[in-house]
Amino acid sequence: MTKKMELLRGTLDMLILRVVALGPIHGYGISQRLKQISRNVLDVRQGSLYPALHRLEKERLISAEWLDSDTGHKAKFYCITPAGRKRLASEAADWETLSNAIGFVLRTAE
Amino acid sequence: MTWFRTRRAEGQLDDEIHDHLRRLTADYIRAGIPPDAARRRAVLEFGGADLAKEECRDVRSSRIASQIARDLSYGFRMLRKSPGFTAVTVLSLALGIAANTTIFSAIDALVLRPLPARNPDQLVAFRIDDRFHNTPNYVTSYALYERYCALTDFFSDVALITPANRAGINFDGVAAIQARVALVTGNYFPMVGVGPALGSYLTSDDTRVFGARPVAVISDRLWRRELLGTPSIAGHQLTLLGVTYSIIGVMPHGFSGSEAGKPVDVWIPMTMAEKAHPERSWGRFVGNAIGRLKPGASRAQAEAAAKVIFRQSRIESLGARATPQQIQALDAEAWLSLEPAAAGYSTQRPLFRRPLVILTIVVALVLLIACMNAANLLLARSEARRREIAVRLAIGAGAGRIAAQLLTESLLLAMIAGGLGLALARSGTVALAAMVRSGPVGANVSSISLDLDTQMDWRILAFTIGICLLNGILFGLPPAFRGSRVALASSLLARGADAHSTGGRFGVGKALLVAQVAATLVLVVAAGLFVRTLRNLQTENLGLDRGHLLQVWTAPNQAGRTGARLIPLFEKTQQRLAALPGVLAASPSVYGMLNGGNSYVGADIHVQGFQAPPGDMQHCEGDIVMPHYFDAAGMRLLAGRDFNTGDTETSPPVVIINETIARHFFAGENPLDRRIGFGDNATGAEMEIVGVVSAAKHSNPREGDRMVQFTPYRQDTRHLGQMAVLVRTAGPPASFFHRIREELRAIDPDLPIVKIETMDEQIADALVPERLIASLAGWLGVVAVILACLGVYGVMSYKVALRTNELGIRIALGATRAGVIGLVVRESLRLAAIGVLIGTPLLLWGKRLMGSMLFGVTASDPLTIAAAAVLLLAVAAAATYLPALRVSRVDPAIALRHD
């Protein structure tokens, strides 16, 4: 079984934004998508997913809408807002810089 | 709105989580897991839906508001679930809050509420204190007032206003009513800086020429009552002593003059004085001076300047031949100061200050007791709710949330109590106002009657809300603090295992109980002392025969008649009332008996041939009476004779002294035929002593042996103005009221009858401050005892319940029921005894405060303290007996299994 990793603090928001940016998606979909994209490495506990979603919604980085879904029930679908896209771009860039720097340090320090 | 949004958001959160679980379950089923197991696994994986919900709520914008709303609704549910607890707590707190608000309303009306004036901080009253009275006065002659006006360096203006005098007035020729009339200098309203609500106010133009401007400004109260609040006041008139005044304006609501507790209804120009106060010549005219300090001038500077003028005018009154000793004596007699008058001035404040301070402490104590009681009940309840709280903690509620919830509940209790208390306080304030208004009649004395404006204002509201919040937090904190630290494991496990640790845990409850008993002891003792004081005063030997005695207070001076013109009225009144069937004696006097005030003259006594040792200056009160006065009063003539019809304007001046004067000046000698004089300029040769009467209380039951002299009415006609008739009856005096009223109407239809009352009622009126304290402290003492009873019952029931197991073992091992009951009762007695021991020294601390208000009993009266202590111990034992009895009846087998 693959080793599951705890998410770094602050990175969950970025990952959610990235997933939501792909199109309207409900909470369960987001958790499944994260698991799938990370090839089961990242396991987002639901206990932190929903509070994060609500926080992002309150900050108006994502918006939510109740739509009919495949199960026949209404589900809450999240979409990214323009402000969310901007935040995603800047965080992704920051992450890129940071991970490059860390990777560089780890590689060259040997 | 927020509430609605919260409800919706809450529902959506549930839906969203359900949706998630449904999808997760569906995926597991698709993977081949049986539906039931799939659902379980989904829930398990989701991990604490409540926690997630909680955190989601935490990020929501309306979080605080919604949390409060949820806590409130939860709190309401919890309070509804235990109506007994809620009722007791709310009622006791409401009583405490109502008592506090009532007393605060009185303080507000008498001391705090500022005049609705421009820059009230600049206003000062010219206050005079003298060594004969324990209350100040603000009496300034017109001549002196004019000299103050010249101090333009310090005052931007000084005005003079006469104290409000009751007078009969007519409105538009109909409806004769009693109203309080004051005369003001033209600059009074502009100086105070309060404009008319309607029409115009009086100005200097109205006071330029004597008697030229018969105009009047009326109060909002009178306008609403008599003119029904009509906006067109033009053409309306009022008649006072035969003079018709045009009403030119109405003052705004909330302005009733500058003297606190003595509202004015009608203001007329000072230049109408000779018409409105015919008994006073202009040269003798007096009023209260009130001034406005110039911006930049300090009160101290102005006071120094005014003092110089005050002293000069007094020295001038001595005449040119004043000796330095006389001047020195004068300086020591009376002194002027400028008193800040932002909230008006009042001669009554010093009289009511100590009662109000005591009442404030009493009501604060009651509230404290109610508060401790509530804390204890809450504490006991939070112990009972440990399981509930533990469950809530276990499913993920934060400790802070639990504390907030418990605090919300206590604040909710306090606020409900506050609302109820505010409503109760309204009736309390009205009752209190009625009580202080009922003070005795007596125009020329500083009467202790107060007419408080008890309307609600923001200060009272803020005060009430303030004490509610303070209370809610005070009694809510201990349970909240402890509730949030409930030990999870032990609480969820069997309670019995926890019982041992609970003993220490409940120490707070015990400490609260001890404190409650201590505070209750202080209150009960104080109540006992004040009730006994009142009883002592009511039953004090007055030196007169008070049964079957009544007094009729009339005021011919209000109808404009004074002086020698009143002699026929006095004589006719005596004749006709004495002739009524059932009346044994009737005698008019000028000042009346037991009018409750301080002395009206306090004149120096000069006795011919008696050289007073230095420093021995005796002062004396007096009255002007008709023959048979002493018969009517039930005073004994010890020597000499009563006045008779031979004592007239032309016969030699005579006087009757009381035995206190006789003892001091004529110890062992015969005072008859000796000569005596009263007043500053008396030589001692003025009057011949023709009789000595037994000593009797003159003004109020509290006074000690006072020196009192009586003069016959025809020899002192200058002071005839009021007429108080003392009537001794054969039957119950109250049954004569109607006939006496009819008779007086027949004698003189225009005679203003102020009041007819029995001597017992008169004494009750004279004892208003004492009655106020005794009744309030008494009733609150009863409340405190009931609360103590509830507190002990609540705590001991809980403690006993915890010990059911142990007590069951004792019974099983052969302890008798009586032994078990004794065990429990002894514990509660021990707590109560500690409370009593702590409370007793507190009493000694309050001794100085109460001392001067007591009569015939000392603050450390052992009997009262012992009685209160026994009462509290008995209450503690009684309140414990029931729970003890209950536990002793439990079958040991059940008790042993009790968890």
What does it look like?
The complex is a heterodimer of chains A (110) and B (899). With 110 residues, chain A is α+β, with helices and mostly antiparallel strands. In chain A, 55% of the residues lie in helices and 15% in strands. Chain A is built from four helices and three strands. In chain A, strand 2 (62-68) and strand 3 form a beta hairpin. Chain A is globular. Chain B is of the alpha+beta class and 899 residues long. Chain B folds into five domains: 2-61; 66-113 and 354-493, no CATH class; 120-340, no CATH class; 518-536 and 766-899, no CATH class; 556-751, no CATH class. In chain B, the strands form four sheets. In chain B, strands 4-5-10-7-9-8 form a six-stranded mixed barrel. Chain B has a six-stranded mixed barrel with strand order 15-16-21-18-20-19. Chain B is elongated. Mean pLDDT of chain B is 83; it is low at 442-446 and 494-504. Chain A binds chain B through residues 26-28, 31-32, 45-47, 50-51, 54-55, 58, 66, 69, 71, 73-76, and chain B through 12, 15-17, 19-20, 22-24, 26-27, 45-48, 51-52, 55-56, 58-61.
If classified by CATH, what would the architecture of chain A be? Answer: Orthogonal Bundle
Number of strands of chain B: 23
Helices and strands of chain A, in N-to-C order? HEHHEEH
Roughly how much helix do the residues of chain A carry, as a percent range? 55-70%
Main CATH class of chain A: Mainly Alpha
CATH topology of chain A: Arc Repressor Mutant, subunit A
The averaged pLDDT of chain B comes out at 83
Itemize the secondary structure elements and their pairings.
The complex is a heterodimer of chains A (110) and B (899).
Chain A: H1 11-20, E1 25-26, H2 27-37, H3 46-58, E2 62-68, E3 74-80, H4 82-108
Antiparallel strand pairs in A: 1-3, 2-3
Chain B: H1 2-30, H2 35-46, H3 49-59, H4 63-81, H5 83-112, E1 123-130, E2 139-141, H6 142-149, E3 155-161, E4 165-171, E5 174-184, H7 188-192, E6 198-199, E7 215-218, H8 220-226, E8 237-240, E9 243-250, E10 266-269, H9 273-276, E11 286-293, H10 299-317, H11 324-333, E12 334-340, H12 349-384, H13 386-394, H14 399-437, H15 458-483, H16 488-492, H17 499-505, H18 507-539, E13 549-554, H19 567-578, E14 583-589, E15 603-607, E16 619-625, H20 629-633, E17 637-640, E18 654-658, H21 659-665, E19 675-678, E20 687-693, E21 708-712, E22 723-729, H22 737-747, E23 753-758, H23 759-766, H24 768-802, H25 804-812, H26 817-845, H27 847-851, H28 862-888, H29 892-897
Helix pairs in contact in B: 1-2, 1-3, 4-14, 5-12, 5-14, 5-15, 12-15, 12-18, 12-24, 14-15, 18-24, 18-26, 18-28, 19-22, 24-28, 26-28
